[in-house]
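Why run this: before we spend reagent on co-expression, it is cheaper to look at a predicted model of the complex and decide which construct boundaries make sense. The entries below are exactly what would go into the expression plan.
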Amino acid sequence: MVRCSLAASQLGVALEMPAAEASALAKQHHQYRLQIETHDPAADREMLERLARWCGLFSPAILPEEGEEPEALLMDVTGCELLFHGERKLADRLLARFRRRRLTARVAIAETMGCAWAVAHFGLPDRSRASEGSWSLRSVRAGDSVPADAIVIPEGRGASALRPLPVEALRIPGEFLEVLGELGLTRIEQLEPLTFASLAERFGDPLVRRLGQAWGLVSEPLLPPEPAPPVHADWSFEEPVDSSQILQAVIEKLIEGIVALLQPRGEGILRLECHLHESSSQRDQWSIELVSPSLSLRHLTELLRLRLERSPLAQPVMSIRLLASKTAPLSVRQQSLFHEEEGGHDPYALGPLINRLRGRLGDRAVLRPRRQADAQPERACRFDPVKQIGKGRQGEFKPWSPGPRPLRLRSRPVPVEMISLVPEGPPVRFCWDGQEHFIRSVWGPERIETGWWRGSAVRRDYYQVETAQGYRYWLFRRLEDARWFLHGSFD
Amino acid sequence: MTLTWKQARSLEELRAELDRRAEVQPRTRGTISSGIGPLDRVLPGEGYRRGTLVEWIAPQGGSGATSLAWQVAPSVLREGASLVVIDPEEEFYPPGLATLGIDPSRLLVVRFPTKRRDAPPRQGRRQRSRRSRDDPRESEVVWALEQTLRCPAVGMTLASLESLESRSFRRLQLAAEQGGGVGVLLRGPTATKAPSWAEVRLRVEPKPSQGKVRRWRVELLKCRGAAGMTWEWERDRETGVVSLATQLAPPASRSFAAGAS
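The model came back. Tokens follow.
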């Protein structure tokens, strides 16, 4: 028995117990059946690495600890706590993330990696006293009496947290523990009066290094892991091919391969690049970008087809490479399902539509209007291309402008011929588009003077006018030369 | 088989209950309020049927018909669905929605940037200046509209279409049926003569305002059971509510009373 669950340890299952004995114990006393899996250190390690990637949103530097059989993840959160409003909140969110996956984890944040490791494994000193010093490495490993928890050691308190902990908390190999035990050195505080030099002489470097790392005297850099290389799939033709049908069939095959490679990683595609090597050593390349990660073969194939329609082949193609240059975990997508269950529509359901429209019409086809703090009507609204979708920010709806605004605005105001009875007086009728419009009612003016810092100052008096037939337009008079323009219509 | 009086009675009650439920059903599931009281009152199910097209016909810009068409948006947003505007002319101006009380945070606008074959689009710089203002091909607009209508997350799709082939029209209607949202088409006067696959077709003509209160004469050209109806509507300036025009001061032209058909 190498590891067991919390529930199993409560049944009396202990570590290093033969599996047969453990299952007999469980059956005999409690009518439970143990689920026993073969110990597979390689799979454990791989799982831990996956968990490390899965925690990547908390810090870029996160690694499984060194050693043959790592069982802890080390994370450098220096500076990252600012993004989570403090270390306590960061630790809680990290714990919550594990809990959502039904994983029991202990989180500790401290000044040094050694101190955090020690506290995560052995708890806070006052707790160890409460349990009558019964802490041993074995009981911790079995997982009993150590509930999932998040501990944050404030700055400057690392040493006092370390002192009462057993020497096992120093991450030192078993043979050192034995020697220390023989000498009666069981707690870290007992090592404190000894100088490093004498310790090194007696026990060798590893102990000194670990002790130094725990006290923060020896640095322990954590290098962020290399991101997984982007997945790609290649195809070379024996003869140059210029049939887009063949090309499409090949690309569909390649995308299948890419999807198969990404599936175990639990990642979806955000950007897919297609490199075409043409016969005359020329290259052509294009890419499709998705607004939410997808691994749906059908959707990706459709997007590629739309993109291919947009750019027909210029020259015969020798080889193709498809490259998933941007990927993201698909779990984001799964979380949105909960959102959907709560009622309301799933914002990610828009993803396939946006991808399709962008695929055929281009990246600047799907836009989201954004309010801008600018008095000039043309600049009061910005249209941003949709690159990613999430929950729409609601509740921050503010009126766009103080005055009435039309539903249709011309990007360039149209000059019109305006007739007034009195100069500078109210407008009576205007000519536009070969038609004469008699004005029945006028509301305004709304003076807009702005943009002098842009070098082209805008000075306009806006009027909302209604014609005799009941049509409403938005006109302005340019104050510099008193010329009239039609800017929009209240459609 | 004969029934006792009591059994017959409970059967009667069950039938009544069934009828009552059947009446409630379309209001909650099958239809969505148009946001216009007088229109809701005549439409079967008191609103636009989901998965259908609605046509608004107006003689020219500035008539206010678009703002009437937008009245359905608040009901759509309340359900958590999104709005999409197909805007090939690039003249749609979202600030104008504020007076209608529509929150643009769940609004997407689809435009048709002209393609450049040779040069890949540069992303850093904005290059709106040199873009040609040619109308994109009509087929692209219809394609985008069809795709949008088919998306279940979109509750309302709004597009202005001058000409529309009957076959494309039918395709749009099928797409709307699949997506379950409401497709709002803004059409010019020439559309009146063309056949329509829309479930509801309305013709709007502006009327001179009463003070600042906007008025329209609206004719229901097509609708199950209520076609041919004509009203005069007005929009309250403060609340934005569209109701039957008050008859306190009738305008100079002929006025049309409510309920006349």
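The first strand of chain A starts at residue 62 and ends at 64. Residues 244-262 of chain A form the longest helix (19 residues). Bring this page to Monday's planning discussion.
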